[in-house]
UniProtKB/TrEMBL annotation:
Source organism superkingdom: Bacteria
Protein name per its UniProtKB record: DUF3459 domain-containing protein
A Pfam family annotated for this UniProt entry: Alpha-amylase
Gene3D superfamilies the record matches: Glycosidases, Oligo-1,6-glucosidase, Domain 2
Molecular-function GO term, any one: alpha-amylase activity
Domain Glycosyl hydrolase family 13 catalytic as annotated: residue spans: 58-445
Protein family: Belongs to the glycosyl hydrolase 13 family.
Origin organism lineage: Bacteria, Bacillati, Actinomycetota, Actinomycetes, Kitasatosporales
UniProt-listed GO biological process terms: oligosaccharide catabolic process
InterPro entries in the cross-refs: GH, GH13_cat_dom, O16G_dom_2
Species, as recorded: Peterkaempfera bronchialis
Length: 583
């Protein structure tokens, strides 16, 4: 987890903000990058890759820090808080989309992949943020959205304007409809956000036209990755941001780019229930891997070990492993682990399954408990969403368990504060596009996206300047969960995370590796495992049961998610708690 720096005085690579129109991407691909600047360099003695045991912190730009008081987080705000992330002890920062966008889906509808949306700042702000992060020893990973664009992307606008026969239409999925007058969608695919995955266009002369595919909102038309211009454009986009100095990409809907030949009907409804349970004609098609092999060759041209991370919903962890073969991507999110219940036998099964799946492809397993699309785990793990005490206790224990496992861990902003899901947002303030559709996702993702509290007793709790606001209202109870309140309090969740990341960085048996040794003979409901390194061993014990249990101490106590006791020389391990031991 070295933070040796590349040339911090690199020249600026800023270019004017512009639309992503056609470029000679093939010619750009042939350009040498021997002196590509900006990335945090890998340690000379580390040939295994910094990402294998990295702790990566997700920033949702709208909700992290607001520099100008408009209620919306921005890049200067993030830049001002980078020292906090350095002190927290993370290795890299992943930024959710900040590109130019109409914001139909919180920036995941991109109109220009080479420009910053004015609500977040400018390319100069992005350049300064990357430079400052590297100076602090932090790497920067940016979101990339290759499955679809905004309907305001120049390609799509031209495709509509030029009408049938336009070459631009070949870069998306435009098809005539079924029925006597083309009044029915081309197939029966359903949008992830609810309703048909097709919208009918109007021709330039005002007559009804072809339909276009959008697996998400109607404002997010899917690219046609069979068209060479799409592949060329994204190779160019990769190089643009790598030249800016970013250290990697998180690939949104990495499983979605390639569709089955002929776009066949599913033959069923309620297709959302099949997500992550089957290979669908629009998800996890084998053809996506050719795309990522091409991208890997570009990443490998740049110094500093630039990486790519797949958001890939697949039916099995074995299929997830396909995305991280040696010539493809570096990591893939482990959604099976995120969705595992707080139950000892099931967690052990998923941990084993995850490690076993990644070992044959020599890729690190990743672990994550929360992100911008799911209920925060401080609420999700409770038996009742109103039971904040149980939820926080389990969240702290689950975080220590996750950070004890071999591989790379992802943290979502605010989880280090123990923030719960905001479950009582009024309908009139919600902005999740799925909330406004008749079916589809539950539409309640806003609850995990509420801006985080930094200081003060009144909203916006330091999120922006005094007297400002926040784009989603913050609960009054968050005054006691702010960074300022928790900082320096040894019992706080913030200090627990700081201590855990410090121990993880220093202890030789934590982080990298591919296996755990399970320790049996413990009471029911207790998970215990050991990890060994030449310079020392480590053990982790987790009580997932409803009652405290007595166990022999396997070593010297390093860290505990809650206070422990002793009875007759044995450790009293409280319910919903995790303890780390030096063995």
């Amino acid at each position: 987890m070295s933070h040796d720096l590349a040339d911090a005085s690199r020249p600026s690579l800023l270019a004017p903000q512009r639309a992503g129109a056609d470029q000679d991407a093939t010619a750009r691909d042939a350009t040498a990058h021997d002196a590509a600047p900006g990335a945090v360099a890998a340690s000379a003695g580390d040939s295994r890759g910094w990402w294998r045991d990295a702790v990566i912190y997700q920033v949702y730009p709208r909700s992290f820090a607001d520099s100008d008081g408009d209620g919306m987080g921005d890049l200067p705000g993030i830049r001002s808080r980078l020292p906090y992330l350095r002190d927290l002890g993370v290795d890299a920062v992943w930024l959710s989309p900040f590109y130019a966008s109409p914001q139909a889906d919180a920036g995941y509808d991109v109109s220009d992949y080479r420009a910053i949306d004015p609500m977040f700042g400018t390319l100069h702000d992005a350049d300064a943020l990357i430079r400052d992060a590297h100076a602090l020893g932090l790497r920067i990973i940016v979101d990339l959205v290759p499955n679809h664009s905004s309907d305001q992307h120049e390609w799509f606008k031209r495709a509509l304007r030029e009408g049938p026969g336009s070459a631009l239409r070949e870069r998306y999925h435009f098809l005539p409809g079924k029925g006597e007058n083309g009044e029915l969608p081309p197939n029966d695919w359903e949008s992830i956000f609810g309703g048909p995955a097709w919208t009918r266009t109007t021709n330039p002369d005002g007559t009804p036209g072809d339909w276009y595919l959008h697996l998400f909102a109607a404002e997010q038309p899917d690219f046609n990755w069979e068209n060479p211009a799409v592949a060329d454009e994204f190779r160019s986009i990769l190089r643009f941001w790598l030249d800016m100095g970013v250290d990697g990409f998180r690939i949104d809907v990495a499983h979605g780019l390639v569709k089955a030949a002929g776009l066949p009907d599913m033959g069923s409804h309620d297709q959302l229930k099949l997500l992550g349970n089957a290979v669908l004609p629009f998800f996890d098609q084998d053809g996506v891997h050719e795309v990522y092999r091409s991208w890997r060759t570009i990443l490998d041209e740049y110094p500093g070990e630039r990486i790519a991370v797949a958001e890939a919903w697949t039916p099995t962890v074995a299929r997830t492993a396909n995305y991280v073969r040696a010539d493809e991507l570096h990591q893939a999110f482990n959604f099976q682990y995120l969705g595992t219940a707080w139950e000892a036998a099931e967690l052990r099964r998923v941990i084993d399954l995850s490690l076993d799946a990644m070992r044959p492809v020599d890729a690190p397993t990743t672990w994550v408990l929360s992100n911008h699309d799911v209920v925060r785990h401080a609420t999700r793990l409770a038996d009742d969403t109103a039971d904040r005490e149980t939820g926080l206790r389990r969240a702290r224990a689950a975080s220590l368990l996750m950070l004890a496992l071999p591989g790379s861990a992802y943290l979502y902003q605010g989880e280090e504060l123990g923030l719960p899901e905001v479950t009582d947002l009024p309908d009139e303030v919600r902005q999740d596009p799925a909330f406004f559709r008749a079916a589809g996702q539950d539409g309640f993702r806003d609850g995990c996206r509420v801006p985080i509290p930094w200081s003060g007793t009144e909203a916006p709790y330091g999120f922006g300047p005094d007297g400002g606001s926040s784009w989603l209202p913050q609960p009054a109870e968050w005054a006691r969960l702010s960074v300022a309140v928790q900082q320096g309090d040894p019992s706080s969740t913030l200090e627990l995370y700081r201590s855990a990341l410090a121990v993880r960085r220093e202890h030789p048996a934590l982080g990298a590796g591919t296996a755990v040794t399970w320790l049996d003979g413990y009471p029911e409901g207790v998970l215990a495992f050991r990890r060994d390194a030449a310079a020392g061993s480590f053990a982790c014990t987790v009580n997932l049961g409803a009652e405290p249990v007595r166990i022999p101490a396997p070593g010297r106590l390093l860290l505990a998610s809650t206070e422990t006791g002793t009875v007759d020389g044995e450790i009293l391990l409280p319910s919903d708690s995790t303890v780390w031991w030096a063995v």
